[in-house]
Amino acid sequence: MGHKDATPARGDSTTPNVMVIRRDATGFDLHTVIIEGMEPETWNKMKSLCSHFVGYCESQVKPINAHYGPEIMRHPIGAYELLVTEPPNDWIRALE
Fold first, then answer.
1. Domain residue spans in the chain?
2. Nearest Cα to 32, choosing from 54, 5, 52?
3. Phi, psi angles (nearest 5°) of residue 12
4. Which of 21, 60, 82, 95 has its CA 20 to 30 A from that of 74?
5. Which residue has the higher pLDDT, 78 or 2?
């Protein structure tokens, strides 16, 4: 998530991996997205694999949420993209 060596999807030099932060009145959620097509069989396998990792990932993200959550909650309700930047540049921006 938001690491310095983030790269476009393997085999695709133009489609970036994106971390989306969705902020609402009660908090925020993190979503990873990549824009590409997927066959139904691959989709089902991916869905199964993702289910397997949800518990682990949630435990790893809790400290990040605790640290950065207050900053995210200072932004208006909406969707944001996590950026790979260095201070003083913004590290999130409104998703267009």
1. 18-94
2. 54
3. -135, 105
4. 60
5. 78
